[in-house]
Amino acid sequence: VTTSEDMEKENVTLLTEFVLTGLTNQPQWRLPFFLVFLVIYLITMMGNLGLIALICRDPNLHIPMYFFLGNLAFLDAWITSTVTPNMLVNLLIKIKMISLTECKIQFFSFGVSVTTECFLLAAMAYDRYVAICHPLHYPVIMTNRLCIWLIVLSF
């Protein structure tokens, strides 16, 4: 007679890796997909980092709207960098495996960055609301301290 405790000990599966199926299993499409996604990734990163550099360099852009846009560009670069580099590597290698730990880290990082972006977009919406509905009170309401506080809260 087998007890339920014996069955529990025997019926254990330990999952340590995932197999990624990817976009295509045909080898001739791996390099074109890699090049297309690499170009898109590089353009995205250059655009976001260029926007951040431009906002930091130009003193005329040191206002709340551009402060929020600079942080949004940083978040977009972060979101893009959580998934895309691993995807590019997996397009080139034949054995497409990812460990459970890597999967959890990537999923957590992506989830945190997307959630942060939602809160940042809400802060940007508040900034635009104040600018449109209370234009005379805008400089008094949207102080640097409040902008930094909203950014910190979104992170």
Give the topology, please.
Elements: H1 4-10, E1 17-19, H2 30-57, H3 64-92, E2 97-99, H4 100-133, H5 138-141, H6 144-154
Antiparallel strand pairs: 1-2
What does it look like?
This protein has 155 residues and is mostly helical. The protein has one domain (19-154): Rhopdopsin 7-helix transmembrane proteins (Up-down Bundle). The chain has six helices and two strands. It has helices at 4-10, 30-57, 64-92, 100-133, 138-141, 144-154; strands at 17-19, 97-99. Strands 1-2 form a two-stranded antiparallel ribbon. The longest helix has 34 residues, at 100-133. The protein is flat and about 70 Å long. The chain crosses the membrane at residues 33-55, 67-93, 105-124, 136-153. It is found in: Membrane. GO terms for molecular function: G protein-coupled receptor activity. Residues 47-155 form the G-protein coupled receptors family 1 profile domain.
State the share of residues found in helices, binned by percent: over 70%
Number of domains: 1
- Low-confidence segments, ≥5 residues, pLDDT <50? none
Shape verdict:
flat
Query: What top-tier CATH class fits best?
Result: Mainly Alpha
Please outline the major beta sheet. 2 strands, antiparallel
What's the total count of β strands? Answer: 2
Report the CATH superfamily.
Answer: Rhodopsin 7-helix transmembrane proteins
Q: What's the average pLDDT?
A: 85
Instruction: Work out the radius of gyration.
Output: 23 Å
Structural class: mainly alpha
- How far apart are the termini? 57 Å
How many individual helices?
6
State the strand order across the main sheet: 1-2
Q: Note the run of SSEs as H and E.
A: HEHHEHHH
Second-tier CATH architecture: Up-down Bundle
CATH topology (fold) name: Rhopdopsin 7-helix transmembrane proteins
Instruction: Tell me the fraction of residues in β-strands, as a range.
Output: under 5%
